[in-house]
Amino acid sequence: MAERTLAEQLGSPLPDGIESLPEQHKQDLSSALRDARHRQAQALARAGEESLKYVPALLRGAVRKAVGL
User: Fold this and answer.
1) CA–CA separation, 66 vs 69, rounded Å?
2) In a domain, 6, yes or no
3) Domain presence at residue 16
4) Is residue 8 included in any domain, yes or no?
5) How many domains does the chain have?
6) What is the percentage of the chain residues whose pLDDT exceeds 70?
7) Which parts of the sequence are annotated with region: Disordered (predicted)?
8) What is the pLDDT of residues 5-24, one digit of tens each?
9) pLDDT, tens only, 15-59
10) Cα torsion angle, 69, 67, 41, 2, sign
11) DSSP string of 18-68?
C-alpha cells in the first residue's frame, strides 16, 4: 500500500511555509504524523477496552459490538 503524502493526510493544501521545505523534510513530517495518529488510535482502543471494565460482564459483548470495539 502506497503511503499517503502529507497533503493527503491533512486533507488540504500545505501552507506555504511547509510547502517550501525540502521533500525529505516533508516526508519526515508525513511519517511523524502517520506515527502519531497510529499511537493515538492504539491509545483510544486501549481506553475503550479499559472502559469495559465498568460494564457488567454479561453485557460486555453487546456493548463492544454497539460501540465498534
Assistant:
1) 8
2) no
3) no
4) no
5) 1
6) 97
7) 1-30
8) 888 888 898 899 988 999 99
9) 999 889 999 998 999 999 999 999 999 999 899 889 889 999 999
10) positive
11) HHTS-HHHHHHHHHHHHHHHHHHHHHHHHHHHHHGGGS-GGGHHHHHHHHT
